[in-house]
């Protein structure tokens, strides 16, 4: 990409650390997945307790995100990133020594707290370092780091588990995180000076029509993506008679497509209307979701998964740079607060998606439930876009005052 030669040394270092931090965060998130059968066999938890284990991450992230983002606007990105990385190291060590379900849930909760510190701060650091014209593609690279960590976490965890037991994946991740802490402490420097002016009136920011549109789009995309995780594997197994390994490969295809399209969509958002791109992405997601249940072969299912993953990546990538531009127009550098709100929308989707999937599949067949969700996404996507256009064309659409710092 043409913008790489134009990056300064501080921009290159900042981007490198953000990629590493987001990668390790999501690697740790998915590292637990292949080790779950071991804990299920040894600890004998109920289905409810396993649900609590997995949801504790999102709950912790939702609780802590509103505090950590604004704090990073005041004390600086480097300090908050170090705090988050220390939290990640503690959580992985807790996973390694866990011999009870309570300790596992505690470790997952601490992991969610750490993510609440690292995610919005890392994205805010990119907004600090890069001008608006470069931000779209750069934020897409950040999303690719997230998807790559998600993609590799489970296979790496499974491989290390088979080699040396259930503690090894977590101890290796803790060592990697500690190295990351040392590197960030030694080499990451901030050029932006913090000031008291970098405060955001969150209520006014959320009432901004463009922010409200982004919030709705993120929620629709995240709920759809997280809804598929608990419902689709059983459906695909029953319909196509495929193995768990094949199910894993299907989700890997979806994650890979997400990661590949995110930088492209981010780059396009600096050249075209980003809200139109988000709208096209969410409608594409609604159109392609039914193909998941219509697929009759493994190859058709893989293509459908790729189209869904690419649609989600195309939808979400422009949201990050656009939030930064809205903050720029408000005359502040309170990116930490803005991206903490993005993290909250993401967290709500992580909680609501599996819940919605469970409720719908209790009353409908999985195929009907997914088609109903696709129809809902299509309808709500159009509604959000129509409302945005209506508010932007109204005389009161000058909303800078709503974002006063």
Automatic annotation (TrEMBL):
Major localization listed first in the record, in broad terms: membrane
Membrane topology: Multi-pass membrane protein
The organism's place on the tree of life at top rank: Bacteria
TM regions (residue ranges): 12-36, 48-67, 79-97, 109-130, 137-158, 170-188, 209-230, 242-268, 275-295, 301-327, 339-360, 366-388
Localization: Cell membrane
Keyword terms, alphabetized: Membrane, Transmembrane, Transmembrane helix, Transport
CDD domains: MFS_MdtG_SLC18_like
Cross-referenced InterPro entries: MFS, MFS_dom, MFS_trans_sf, MFS_Vesicular_Transporter, Tet-R_TetA/multi-R_MdtG-like
Ranges where the Major facilitator superfamily (MFS) profile domain occurs: 14-393
Pfam family, one: MFS_1
PANTHER family: GH10249P
Protein name: MFS transporter
Species of the source: Brevibacillus choshinensis
Upper lineage: Bacteria, Bacillati, Bacillota, Bacilli, Bacillales
